[in-house]
Amino acid sequence: MKIIYPGSFDPLTLGHIDIIKRLSRMFDEVIVGVLINDSKNNLFTLDERVDIIKKQIEEDELKNVTIKSFDGLLVNFAKMEGIKLVARGLREVTDYEYEKNIAMFNSKLYDGLETIFLLSNPKFSYISSSGVREVARFNGDVSSFVSEDVKSRIEEKFDN
Ligand code: PNS
Hints:
By secondary structure, the protein is α/β, with parallel strands linked by helices. It has six helices and five strands; from the N terminus they run βαβαβαβαβαα. The protein has helices at residues 14-26, 46-59, 74-81, 93-109, 129-137, 148-159, and strands at 2-7, 29-35, 65-70, 85-90, 114-119. The protein has a three-stranded parallel β-sheet with strand order 1-2-3. Strand 4, helix 4 (93-109) and strand 5 form a beta-alpha-beta unit. The model has no long low-confidence stretch (mean pLDDT 96). Bound molecules: 4'-phosphopantetheine.
């Protein structure tokens, strides 16, 4: 069974890493789908986001996880990959409201597409990429939210 775990991953957080590891144990193959979104608010470029995830997966030796980027609709990416299963993490009820809507749009757009939700590990349930970006921009300490690699990349970025 193959599953897609999509997101912006700007940046990859400890919460994302936990979900990827759990999916890797549950499914034969996990494709991390990185959304190509060129927004002014981005902290990392697409290449950097992909590179960060690749390094993490190598470090954690998750042999059944691969990374791909996609543009436009998630359902088109899923169709191209021939996969009808998508995973998303749920932190709070507000996530559920947002995610439920997207999942319904997606199943309408791609008949048979299922979205499954993994409850976030409570240790990480308050962590969001947008929160990390905000802390990073104001030179706050991000070490409780991201890996050492992401932390040092953030430091490099704001030193320059
Ligand atoms: O990490 P994020 O930003 O919460 O991930 C959101 C993502 C990438 C899963 C979602 O925005 C997405 O799938 N975007 C692609 C466009 C799309 O298919 N939208 C759903 C129909 S409303």
